[in-house]
Structure formats: C-alpha cells, structure tokens
Amino acid sequence: MKEDFRLLRPSLVPGKYIFIARTGAAEAPYPAMAAEMKSLLKRAKLFNNEGGDA
Prior knowledge:
The chain has 54 residues and is mainly alpha-helical.
C-alpha cells in the first residue's frame, strides 16, 4: 500500500491521507489492492486531474 500511494501521490490533491487495511487485505492479491486504492481515491475526487490516470 505504501508504494502504491507513493506512486499516486503526485497526482493527488494536497492533504493528509490515512489508509487502514482490514485483516483480509493481507490475503488479497496485489492487483486488487492497488485497483481498490485507486478506485477509492477516484470516488473521493482526490486526483488533481479528476481522471485518476496516474
């Protein structure tokens, strides 16, 4: 999660971000976790360009 966020950070609006992973996240496949993080940030309209094409 930290690395995914680090890569997305330049495309996000300024602010503080906190992600809390549930227990099941440890068993989730990496692509699913990365896609879900991006999806949540898009839904919250936190991308600078609102496209979320980072």
